[in-house]
Design a protein that fits this description.
Strand content: 15-25%
Shape: globular
Number of strands: 3
Oligomer: single chain
Radius of gyration: 16 Å
Strand order of the largest sheet: 1-3-2
CATH class: Mainly Alpha
């Protein structure tokens, strides 16, 4: 019995598509943005538990911004893969009003 495209789900394919999109956005953001943001986060937030929005706010306050808002997700992904961000296993509500208190991962920045 064939159920059609509605039931054509694959966690592996979904993850691969996500990883590909994140890599594309990260590449388009450029090494300068990524390197500056990573350096600032490590320097200023080492040992701190925070949300990705806290890292974004810090970077924006220092004038470090990407070409497109999707690059923030790519930055977070790269920091996780580099072992700079450690998942605490906890969630916290976003403080950014436009995020409507959505629950987000709490990260610990490796010191």
């Amino acid at each position: 019995m064939t159920l059609g495209p509605l039931f054509d789900y694959s966690a592996d394919a979904s993850q691969a598509a996500r990883d590909s999109a994140i890599a594309t956005v990260g590449a388009n953001a450029g090494a300068v943005f990524m390197d500056q943001a990573k350096a600032l986060i490590v320097e200023r937030l080492a040992g701190v538990e925070c949300l990705a929005e806290d890292m974004r706010r810090l970077c924006e306050e220092e004038g470090i911004t990407p070409h497109h808002h999707n690059a923030w997700g790519s930055l977070t992904n790269q920091l996780v893969r580099a072992g700079i961000l450690i998942d605490t296993g906890r969630l916290a509500k976003s403080k950014k009003v436009s995020s409507h208190a959505r629950r987000n991962p709490v990260w610990k920045v490796r010191g």
